[in-house]
Design goal:
single chain, 142 residues, alpha+beta, Alpha-Beta Plaits, 2 domains, 3-stranded antiparallel sheet, two-stranded parallel sheet, 7 strands
């Protein structure tokens, strides 16, 4: 690192602007991350939740790892009627989670999804799952 370089974290910027800020690792503490986001959405005022983890799409898929992908069970995803407020596609902020307004349910864009499984852990209806694909065909892994 350049010794003359000043590093300013997102949480320092937020706090400097007077924004109440929570810093959390969404992989190590999934429930804490969900609680922090829902709490921020329910309370008034400006709030920030900084997810302290490299985005899964940033780390490219390993060629030695099994090929995984996310799938949405359209029958289980009830979208607006769920009560989750479309958490996976609207709130989570993962570029792989998308919303099909015409069909009324979420879908996963495989070009942006790294199959980390975070959305599957967060879905209250269990509509998202990680599957292994490849020479053996598709088989569920979570």
């Amino acid at each position: 690192l350049d010794p003359n370089k000043i590093v300013v974290t997102p949480e320092e910027v937020c706090r400097g602007l007077g924004v109440e800020t929570v810093v959390i690792d969404p992989v190590e503490d999934v429930q804490g991350a969900v609680t922090a986001v829902f709490d921020g959405l329910q309370r008034g005022g400006l709030r920030a939740v900084v997810m302290r983890r490299v985005c899964a799409t940033y780390d490219k898929k390993s060629v030695t790892a099994p090929k995984l992908e996310m799938v949405v069970d359209a029958e289980l995803c009830v979208g607006e009627a769920c009560g989750c407020d479309r958490f996976c596609s609207r709130v989570l902020g993962c570029p792989g989670n998308r919303w099909d307004a015409e069909a009324g349910h979420a879908y996963v864009d495989p070009d942006y999804c790294n199959a980390c499984g975070l959305c599957a852990q967060l879905c209250p209806r269990g509509a998202l799952s990680v599957v292994e694909v490849g020479g053996r065909g598709e088989e569920g892994v979570s």
